[in-house]
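Rotation project, supervised by the postdoc (A.L.). Task for the rotation student: set up a whole-complex structure prediction and record inputs and outputs verbatim in this book. Inputs entered:
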Amino acid sequence: MSSSRRGHRERLVYETAQQLRRAGVTGTGLRRVVSDAGAPRGSLQHYFPGGKDQLVGEALQWSGTWAAARVMHHVDRMRRPTPSRLFAAIVDEWAADLDARDFSRGCPVAASVIDCADTNDTVRRAADAALETWRRPITEALVEMGRPRRRAERLSTLMLCALEGALVVARARRDTTPLGLVARELAPVLDA
Amino acid sequence: MSSSRRGHRERLVYETAQQLRRAGVTGTGLRRVVSDAGAPRGSLQHYFPGGKDQLVGEALQWSGTWAAARVMHHVDRMRRPTPSRLFAAIVDEWAADLDARDFSRGCPVAASVIDCADTNDTVRRAADAALETWRRPITEALVEMGRPRRRAERLSTLMLCALEGALVVARARRDTTPLGLVARELAPVLDA
DNA sequence: GCCGGACTATGACAGATGTCATACTAGCGG
DNA sequence: CCGCTAGTATGACATCTGTCATAGTCCGGC
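Outputs recorded:
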């Protein structure tokens, strides 16, 4: 039936994204993805004839649009939006996720870049695209807040850099304070 | 002879660190490490009875002390040291490395954290330790420049977060500008 | 009723992984 | 010369990987 069809396909994409967050690309086994997704193994071959690359690519794309949606959600929720508040909202959500999942999951995009930047250009491109998908709504929000477009581009990049790095350091330490730290320290730069 | 002994052992550690930078922990195969290091396969078993975990652990430790040495080198070279100049020096060196190696290699510590934070606590701890080894000389330099210790701790963490994140973004884009960007944008915060 | 397409099931494949057991070589001290 | 130890060599092990071939099931349309 078409409901389980869509169910299985997107379950696989979602579960792949989660595995990427846990163990990176190389550490993500398709058999485990299938079993954790509760999907039949045959669905892999059926929905993703492009193999693992296609699956990982779609997982990254999904992650990018999901992150973008979260950004827009935060923007909508803020009564008096400022760049630093937007950044704080994004960072806080990640910190809560790290806490809730005991630092087991990071950013799927970062994981893919680190694993594949030199070994798999298809995946690298997908990660790059996901990053841009994520960054765009941030840039737009900053423009909305009165920053010149050129400046907004720089600031959104700065935010993502600081966030990605803080995620790595936080997971290494098993301590979310680096996330709060970058949010706090970047505030004056973002709001200047 | 004892020269080749030391030679083989540290060659293996070094080569492992390089592979970590390329492909992460899971993507680093011991057979390839051995062959790229030009070392006999039997040496693995001989020098690293603890297996892959030990090898990766020592590679991370080596990377940490190497990075720390680079920091101290930069500090020594600066006539009128400021936090932002130190950060710029560190960042520039990474940017040059990315360029020279065509974005093929990132930070071994970040790679290990992302691959193993949830799957291998031994490696995660080694990565955490390496990060601290790296951060310490930065903190000390900042103290030397007149920052209160508490503040220096925060700033050194901020630097590493921004750097690690910029490395990921730069490798995704195959473009080093994010590195220069974080250096430039963080300057006022660092020097305040 | 039955044909055709979408989906699933399962097993096999070649290759790579980390680890271990075993045997070998060299060199040094007795 | 013998024995000991550090280092090397090599092959085998079980396990896991992604991929593919094949056959099966289900269901709507003719």
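Student's summary: The radius of gyration of chain A is 18 Å.
Supervisor addendum: Chain A is about 80% helix and 0% strand.
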